[in-house]
Write a structure and sequence with these properties.
The structure is a homodimer of 235-residue chains.
Chain A (H helix, E strand, L loop, with lengths): L4 H15 L7 E2 L2 H7 L4 H13 L3 E4 L3 E4 L14 H7 L4 E12 L2 H7 L6 E11 L2 E10 L17 H8 L2 E11 L3 H7 L7 E10 L2 E11 L5 E6 L3
Antiparallel strand pairs in A: 1-3, 2-3, 4-5, 5-6, 6-9, 7-8, 8-9
Helix pairs in contact in A: 1-3, 2-3
The structure holds a DNA duplex (19 and 19 nucleotides).
DNA sequence: AAGTGGTCTAGACCACTTG
DNA sequence: AAGTGGTCTAGACCACTTG
C-alpha cells in the first residue's frame, strides 16, 4: 500500500472543499456514507474525519453530522518562512555564514527525532543568518540523509537549508515548539553574544511524505527577533 | 461509562511522567503491554498513545517504542487556549491569584492598542496563573470598558479573563507577537523569580466585531512554558 | 425510530528494528 | 525470530439530535 486509505479519504475531502464543491459550513458525508463510498471500515473513514477535525478543517457534532469549518480559522500563527525572504522583505541585506557541514553518528535523541537508527549517519549543519552584517539567527540542523542525500554538497551561501530541503523533499507537515532560553556557550559564539541575553528558540521538525526530513534549532537574540501571528475566528 | 478507557490510560501515563517514575526520554510500555495491563483492545491503548503523541507528551518510533518527550508545558501556537484548561488537561491543579483590578487612564501606547482615546478610562488586571501552586504565567491585561463594561466585577478566581471576555464579546480576531525577554522587576515579583531567567512573552490583541476588546501581556518563565504548533501543508 | 458521531473489541497483515 | 508501531476490518453498544 502506497497511500493509506485514511489519507486518500482526507485528500478527497480537502479537494472537495478547495474546489468549492463543499462550501463553508455545509454538511459533508457521514462516516457511514464514506464507509460505503470508499469500501472501508467505519474506523478508517472515521480516522480521516477525526484528523481533519483536529486540523481545524472540519467540525463535528454528535447526532448532527460533520461540517466544513470556516476557512478563516485556518491561518497559522507560525508560518514557515524562509529567513532570507523575511530579511529581504523588510529591506535588509541578507547573508549567511556556514560554520559546520558534516556527517555524524546520530545519538539517541536525534535519531528518534529523525526517525532513523541510533548511531546511523546523519548530516549536521550549523549556520548563522545575518541581517545587515549583524547575526540574526543561528541554525543547527540535523538532516535525514535518506531523504536529502545531497545535502552536504549544497552551497548554503546561495540557498538556505530550508529552501533546499523544500525542493528536495516537499514538506507535508511541520511541528514546532517555541521557548525562551539562556544561550549556551556555542550559541553565544555563533551569534557573537557577549552577554547572556535571553534568546528565542524554535525547534522545528519537518516531514515529507516519506518521513522526517530534518530537525532544526533556530536561535535568535530576544532583542532582535520576534514571531508574529494572526488568527481569525469563525461565525 | 463516565471516563472513557483511553482517557484513563492517558491519565495513568501522565501521572507516571509527572511523578518522575517515567523520566524524560525513557521508554514507556508498548501498546501490547498496555493492552494486557488495562484489559483493553490494542486500538484503545493505541488511541491513548497517539493522542499523547499529538499533544507533544510522547514520541514514537516504529520498531523502537514509545518515549517520554521533554517535560515543559506545551500549548498550541495555533489556537487561543484558556490557560486553566491547558493546565487541567495535563492533570495539573489550576489556581489563579488576582493581584490588581482597577480602572486607570490610558497612556498613549495602551490607548492606541485598544483603539480608545488617550487618557480615557480603561480597565487593567494583573493576575498570576498557577500550576500545582507554582507560578506558570503572569497576565497583565488592558480592557476596553465599552466592550466589557462589567469586567471589574468578575471573580477571576472562578473564571479566567479570557473565558469571561470570550463570553462578553465573542472574539473575531487575534494578533500576537512572541518574544524572549529578560523579566522586569514587576514580572519577577509576580512570578517570584529570584534570578533573571529568560521569559517567554506573548502579546495578544483580541478583537470582537465592535473593535479591540483587550490587549494582554502573558509572561512565563522560559523553563516552565513553551508554545507548540503543528502545521499541515496542503497541495 | 432512524441517523449521527463517540467509544470499543478482537482480531489481521504490514514495515521496521533489535537480538 | 520476536517485538514494535502503522494500518485496517467488521462488527458492537452508546449518547445525542432530528423527524
Amino acid at each position: 500500500m502506497i497511500t493509506p486509505k485514511f489519507a486518500q479519504i482526507k485528500r478527497f475531502i480537502i479537494d472537495k472543499i478547495k474546489s468549492g464543491e463543499w462550501p463553508e459550513h455545509s454538511r459533508i458525508p457521514s462516516e457511514n456514507e464514506l464507509t460505503v463510498q470508499f469500501s472501508v471500515s467505519r474506523m478508517t473513514a472515521r480516522r480521516a474525519l477525526t484528523e481533519l477535525t483536529e486540523e481545524g478543517i472540519l467540525t463535528r457534532s454528535q447526532g448532527l453530522g460533520t461540517f466544513v469549518a470556516s476557512f478563516k480559522s485556518q491561518s497559522s500563527l507560525l508560518e514557515i518562512r524562509n529567513i532570507a525572504d523575511e530579511v529581504k522583505d523588510r529591506g535588509g541585506q541578507y547573508t549567511c555564514n556556514p560554520i559546520v557541514l558534516e556527517s555524524m553518528q546520530a545519538i539517541a535523541p536525534i535519531a528518534i527525532a529523525l526517525g532513523v537508527e541510533v548511531d546511523s549517519l546523519v548530516y549536521r549543519s550549523v549556520l548563522v543568518h545575518f541581517e545587515n552584517d549583524k547575526p540574526l539567527q543561528a541554525e543547527e540542523r540535523f538532516v535525514n540523509p535518506n531523504l536529502a542525500p545531497e545535502y552536504l554538497q549544497q552551497n548554503f551561501e546561495q540557498i538556505t537549508p530550508h529552501e533546499y530541503l523544500s525542493q528536495a523533499a516537499p514538506l507535508t507537515e511541520a511541528r514546532h515548539t517555541v521557548e525562551a532560553i539562556t544561550p549556551s556557550d556555542d550559541v553565544c559564539e555563533w551569534l557573537t553574544l557577549y552577554n547572556l541575553e535571553p534568546c528565542l528558540q524554535v525547534i522545528r521538525r519537518t516531514w515529507s511524505s516519506k518521513g522526517v526530513v530534518s530537525f532544526a534549532r533556530l536561535i535568535s537574540p530576544g532583542s532582535k527577533y520576534r514571531l508574529g501571528g494572526h488568527l481569525t475566528f469563525k461565525k
